[in-house]
Amino acid sequence: MSEKTIFQKIIDREIPAELLHEDAFCVAFRDIQPQAPVHVLIVPKKLIRRVGEAVAEDRETLGALLLAAGVVAEKLGVRSTDKGFRLVINHGRDGGESVPHLHVHLLAGRELGWPPG
Ligand code: DGP
Question: Taking a C-beta distance cutoff of 8 angstroms, is the pair 110, 36 a contact?
């Protein structure tokens, strides 16, 4: 079996992290290298390596990640449309993935440029 990812260790409480949200499917905690005033990672408890490798049975988990994003955005005061937030999922080298455990980035707290870098 391959070694646990850093996110799996957080989920298993082997590494401390302040959880902003937890439900049956996922946890959310702040990114250690924030790219915006609000930068939260939403991570499924099930190890799905990356979004393009999810399978049909992951449908409920994938939906739970987006629902959790709304909950976290509300909790952090950025859900209203006059503020707002962006969700990002990086897949593979060109996508900028560095941790091989699916996670949704929730970025907010400043105006985010488009197109992204
Ligand atoms: P990505 O490049 O999409 O795979 O994003 C991985 C993110 O994970 C990156 O923004 C930094 C963050 N990260 C890496 N290690 C840790 C950690 O130990 N704790 C937390 N909170 N975030 C981490």
Answer: yes
